[in-house]
Structures are given as C-alpha cells and as structure tokens.
Amino acid sequence: MMELLYEAVQPANMIYTILLGLAILYALTVMIGIMDMEAFDIDIDIDADVDADIDADVNGGGFFLEVLSFFNLGRIPFMIIYSLSALFMWMMGMISNHYLGGNVSYSLMLLIPITLISLIITKIITTPLIPAFKSMKEGVKPTEYIGMKGELLLPISPNEKSQIEVIIEGDVHRISVALAEGETMMLPKGTEVYITGVSEDKSFYRISKDDII
User: Fold this and answer.
1) Distance CA 194, CA 212 (A)
2) How does strand 171-179 pair with strand 205-208?
3) In order of start, what are the domains of the chain with their CATH numbers?
C-alpha cells in the first residue's frame, strides 16, 4: 500500500492523482451531505436522433455540444462521467508511467491519449445506464419556460443550437435552444435572451434577444 501511495505522488502521476482525488473528495462530501449530488451536473438536452442531420458546416457551440453528447454528458450526470474517467486515467497513468520509469515528458505525451481512451471506456460503461437516468428525468414535472429570460452559455447563430441558463426559484435550468424563426443575427455567449416558443417535437426551445411574446 505504501508503495502504491509513493508512486501516486510521483511527478509523472501527480495530475492523475489530483483528478482522482477531486472525484473522491466530491463523493465524500455527497455522502456526508455537505454537497448535493447534482451540484456539478450539466444538462445538455441533446438527443442522438434530434441532430442527426447536422451538416459539416456546424461550428462553434453546436459542435462542442455534439462532442459532449457523444460522451453521454447531458444523459448521465457529469460527476459520474468525471469520476469514472478520472479513475481509468489514474489506473492507466500509473501503469504506463511504471513501465516508462516515471519519465515526466513521456507522461505528458500520453496525457491526451489516456484521456480519450478513458472517456471512451466511460462512455461504453455508462451507455446502458442512459434509459434509467432518462426515466428519472421524465418523472419530473416539466417547467413551462416560454416567456422566461435566460443567458446564453455558448454563442448561437441561425441553423445552430446552443444552450441557455434559466434560474427558477434558485434552481439553475440549462435548456437546449435555437434562434426564433426569422432571426438572422449571431448572438455571443452571455447574451440575455427570451424564450419565445418551442419546437414542434418539443426537443428544444426558440429564443430571441427581444421579448416578442
């Protein structure tokens, strides 16, 4: 055990140990009730079948949200994905650095591949859990957002989706949105917008910079 702890705090392994330590600290705070389990949750609200027809010209926030969705963020609580990824990164980092002799340069070179492999393993493990978490979300009575004001979390332009943050009675709601029909301007991150409608399939809401309801 002491040898494992010694290896874990070596410079080549320190970044993995810190990431795993944060996950363990979070789990402990949840268990003793200091922090709510959804404190760091990220709600992306992207379904795999909604944006299947996105063309190659999708850029900015839309592409970023698609990448997050690929790794099940928005379908599985963020801290579950983070904790599993941190664990796999720590395991692979410790093993690889052991055979590389604890070389910091090699450790840095392997950081991105190890991160990607860990995310893919986490995606494989968490994908079967999606229906369970979806059922939990569907069990919550939806909020009527139309008419409310929110703040853009990512830039948005016509034919591209983004996400806004709406605060209702102290609770933060993150909602998938697109510009209202007829809107042609690009809006930067942080812009205050109004929710003016909802899509026909109710998978996202329409927004405008002006309250046109």
Assistant:
1) 8
2) parallel
3) 2-41+77-136 (no CATH), 139-208 (2.40.50.140)
* Size of the chain in residues: 213
How do residues 33-71 score in pLDDT, each as one tens digit?
Answer: 665 555 555 555 444 333 333 333 434 556 666 777 788
CA distance 213 to 209: 12
Residues of the chain with pLDDT under 50: 45-59, 140-141
Strands 149-152 and 161-168 come out as antiparallel
Are the beta carbons of 22 and 92 closer than 8 angstroms?
A: no
pTM: 0.58
How confident is the model at residue 212, as a pLDDT? 56
CA atoms within 13 A on the CB side of 169: 2
- In this structure, what token pair is assigned to residue 113? 């591949």
213's CB contacts (< 8 A; 6+ apart) are 146, 147, 194, 196
HSE-CB at 93 with a 13 A cutoff on CA atoms is 32
| Nearest alpha carbon to residue 153 among 167, 132, 139, 134 | 167
